[in-house]
């Protein structure tokens, strides 16, 4: 089994970019009004946000990577360990709820922007719908990765980079956003070189979680699909037009993947979240245990949070590429 390794130089460099931010030297001071598009809404900002609230860890770490911790009024839903590089900045951000944030908790934080990686977080039974928040004068930003219909022609990583660009405009830190994009483009370039000289195309199943015994895998048009495209190793479930479809173990057997990428969500704490539990289930399943990928330990263990759109996604792209190479496929 190829285990996840320490973060590469690209993310470390991103942290260095973030470290230059100080409240006393706010690059957004005197910023002219800006307008950005987010998942079908036009958002206009007369001044850079000073009290942003993020709804989950993935969007939190992305803002921290851009050095915006001092302009965050709160965060919620931690799904995994905070990167050591971001821990000090994260500790200064109020945790409004360790799990899903409620509408009351969001409003109590008096935010001037709410950010999420997922459109599904904006419902009446969570923080409220985006039109409801807009009517209250609170703009909401949803990652472009989760809204492919509004960014036609862009791959998931390109949509993620669009997020960085938009954050750079909104918060007045365009230089940091540009530096982060350049660093991660280099990661993508190096990952693409992994497929050079390979004669075949290994197929990959990305196993995200297991709920009540049924697996959820990566479908079409999410970050894992783009990782597969870049690495020249097709996603075995790319024909299903959902981010994380629920399928059966027998369907995984029918697809007979060359490699299985397992997302570790240990800190989330639900049954079947840890990579160890998922691997144990596969080894004990009467049919899945007979897959060549399982019998030959062609399993790559990655942080589950990095399979969703986040500043850390480039790291799992690197891990999967290195894993394919180490496994000889």
UniProtKB/TrEMBL annotation:
<feature type="domain" description="Fe/B12 periplasmic-binding">
    <location>
        <begin position="51"/>
        <end position="329"/>
    </location>
</feature>
<protein>
    <submittedName>
        <fullName>Iron complex transport system substrate-binding protein</fullName>
    </submittedName>
</protein>
<comment type="similarity">
    <text>Belongs to the bacterial solute-binding protein 8 family.</text>
</comment>
<dbReference type="Pfam" id="PF01497">
    <property type="entry name" value="Peripla_BP_2"/>
</dbReference>
<dbReference type="InterPro" id="IPR050902">
    <property type="entry name" value="ABC_Transporter_SBP"/>
</dbReference>
<dbReference type="InterPro" id="IPR002491">
    <property type="entry name" value="ABC_transptr_periplasmic_BD"/>
</dbReference>
<feature type="signal peptide">
    <location>
        <begin position="1"/>
        <end position="24"/>
    </location>
</feature>
<keyword id="KW-0732">Signal</keyword>
């Amino acid at each position: 089994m190829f285990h996840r390794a320490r973060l590469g130089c690209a993310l470390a460099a991103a942290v260095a970019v973030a470290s230059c931010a100080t409240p006393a030297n706010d690059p957004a001071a005197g910023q002219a009004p800006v307008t950005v598009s987010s998942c079908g809404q036009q958002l206009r900002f007369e001044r850079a946000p000073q009290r942003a609230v993020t709804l989950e860890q993935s969007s939190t770490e992305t803002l921290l990577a851009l050095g915006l911790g001092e302009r965050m009024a709160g965060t919620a839903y931690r799904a995994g360990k905070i990167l050591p590089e971001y821990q000090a900045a994260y500790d200064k951000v109020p945790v409004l709820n360790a799990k899903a944030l409620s509408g009351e908790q969001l409003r109590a934080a008096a935010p001037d922007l709410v950010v999420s990686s997922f459109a599904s977080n904006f419902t009446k039974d969570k923080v409220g719908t985006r039109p409801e928040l807009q009517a209250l004068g609170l703009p909401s930003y949803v990652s472009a990765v989760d809204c492919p219909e509004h960014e036609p022609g862009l791959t998931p990583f390109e949509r993620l980079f669009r997020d960085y660009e938009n954050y750079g405009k909104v918060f007045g830190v365009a230089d940091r956003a540009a530096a982060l994009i350049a660093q991660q483009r280099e990661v993508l370039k190096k990952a693409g070189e992994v497929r050079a000289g390979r004669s075949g195309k290994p197929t990959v199943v990305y196993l995200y979680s297991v709920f009540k015994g049924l697996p959820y895998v990566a479908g079409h048009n999410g970050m894992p699909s783009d990782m597969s495209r870049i690495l020249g190793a097709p996603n075995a479930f790319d024909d299903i037009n959902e981010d994380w479809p629920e399928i059966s173990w027998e369907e995984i057997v029918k697809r007979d993947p060359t490699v299985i990428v397992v997302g570790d969500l240990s800190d989330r704490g639900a049954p079947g979240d840890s990579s160890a539990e998922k691997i144990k289930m596969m080894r004990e399943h009467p049919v899945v245990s007979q897959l060549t990928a399982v019998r030959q330990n062609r399993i790559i263990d990655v942080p589950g949070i990095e399979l969703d759109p986040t500043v850390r996604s480039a790291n799992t792209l690197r891990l999967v590429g290195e894993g394919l190479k180490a496994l000889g496929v």
